[in-house]
Amino acid sequence: MQIKSVDHISYAVTDIDKVVDSWSKLYGIGPWTYQENGGTDTKGRPWKIRMAFAYVGPVEIELVQCVEGRIFQSKFIDKWGEGVHHLGFFVDDVDAEAADLVEKGANLLIHDPGRFAYLDAGGPGGAIFELMQRRDKK
């Protein structure tokens, strides 16, 4: 895999409205769009999140707040507090790229086939990368 651009920066936050207000006023970031998502985890526990999205040039900024249950970002906030959770990259074939990275030693954290995969290379840096299916592909 050869990363050519950062397409997405995701922040784990505890109060999405305060962050949107602050970043809009201080940095002029916006307009923001909002989404909610939810469901149950593999153990049947409910979860719900709020997300806010804005662009800075071609880079998508994502804010994620857990409003019910526990999610991937909850552990991050418990350990590190609010902040950059992961970087995202658009790829033509998320499943093939994820499989290749796992074969090379990356740890697959979450995978929604055909849509996205979160991976951690382990070792130095501790970065979580999200591979996202290029949006112009169905």
Please give a structural write-up:
With 138 residues, this protein is α+β, with helices and mostly antiparallel strands. The protein starts with 7 loop residues before the first strand and ends in a 5-residue tail after the last strand. 22% of the residues lie in helices and 43% in strands. A hairpin with a 3-residue loop joins strand 6 and strand 7. The longest helix has 12 residues, at 16-27. The model has no long low-confidence stretch (mean pLDDT 91). An 8-stranded mixed beta sheet has the order 2-3-4-1-5-8-7-6. It has a single domain (8-133), classed as 2,3-Dihydroxybiphenyl 1,2-Dioxygenase, domain 1 (Roll), CATH 3.10.180.
Give the topology, please.
Elements: E1 8-12, H1 16-27, E2 33-40, E3 46-56, E4 59-68, H2 72-80, E5 83-91, H3 94-103, E6 107-112, E7 116-120, E8 128-133
Parallel strand pairs: 1-4, 5-8
Antiparallel strand pairs: 1-5, 2-3, 3-4, 6-7, 7-8
- Helix and strand sequence: EHEEEHEHEEE
Query: Low-confidence parts, pLDDT < 50 over ≥5 residues?
Result: none
Strand order of the largest sheet: 2-3-4-1-5-8-7-6
The end-to-end span amounts to 21 Å
* CATH class group: Alpha Beta
The CATH architecture can be given as Roll
The proportion of residues in beta strands is 35-45%
Radius of gyration: 15 Å
The biggest sheet, with number of strands, parallel, antiparallel or mixed sense and barrel status, is: 8 strands, mixed
The name of the CATH superfamily reads 2,3-Dihydroxybiphenyl 1,2-Dioxygenase, domain 1
Secondary structure tally, helices: 3
Count of domains: 1
**Broad structural category:** alpha+beta
